[in-house]
Design a protein that fits this description.
single chain; 151 residues; alpha+beta; six-stranded mixed β-sheet; 53% helix
Length: 151
C-alpha cells in the first residue's frame, strides 16, 4: 500500500468532517436569524412555543457541532499515530473481507478504484481488528478473515 493512498483517505475524512461542521454552523446561523424574527413578530403562547422549538433545534445543532469537532481531533490523532506493526488508530488495513481505515466513522470511500470503510475505533469491526498484525486471522460476525496488509 502506498502512503499516497492513506493521504487520500485522510483528505476525504477531513473534508467529511469540515462539511459537517460547516453544515452545523450554517444551521446555527439560520436558527439565530429565525430566533430574531420570532422575537420581532408574535406574542403569547404561540411566541413561547416557537422560541422553545427553535431553542431545541439550536441545542441539537450545538451538540452535533461538538461531536464533529471531536471527530476532527480524533482524525488528527489518527494522522499522527505511527505504524507500530499492530492495528490501531490511524491504521490502513486490507483484509479478505474489506478494506478499513481506522479513524472516524465517515463511511464508504472510493480511492484509486478501491473501496475503503472509514470506521471509528469503537466500532465492532475495529474492535475485532485492534492489536492484530499482518497475516493474522480475525473473527467478525461468525466469519474468519485474514489481514492481508497493514499500513
Amino acid at each position: 500500500m502506498s502512503s499516497n493512498l492513506k493521504q487520500q483517505l485522510i483528505e476525504v475524512c477531513e473534508n467529511y468532517v469540515e462539511s459537517r461542521i460547516n453544515r452545523a454552523l450554517a444551521g446555527i446561523k439560520d436558527l439565530d436569524e429565525a430566533l430574531k424574527m420570532e422575537s420581532k413578530s408574535s406574542a403569547g403562547d404561540k411566541y413561547e412555543t416557537g422560541r422553545a422549538m427553535i431553542n431545541l433545534e439550536f441545542d441539537k445543532l450545538l451538540l452535533q457541532l461538538e461531536q464533529y469537532k471531536g471527530l476532527k481531533k480524533t482524525l488528527a490523532f489518527a494522522v499522527q499515530n505511527p505504524n507500530s506493526g499492530k492495528i490501531g488508530l490511524g491504521s490502513l488495513v486490507k483484509t479478505t473481507a474489506a478494506n478499513y481505515f481506522l479513524s472516524i466513522p465517515a463511511g464508504e470511500i472510493l480511492v484509486e478504484n478501491e473501496k475503503f470503510y472509514a470506521i471509528g475505533i469503537n466500532s465492532p469491526i475495529a474492535q475485532a481488528l485492534l492489536g492484530k498484525k499482518e497475516k493474522e486471522n480475525f473473527s467478525f460476525n461468525g466469519n474468519t478473515n485474514q489481514i492481508l496488509s497493514l499500513e
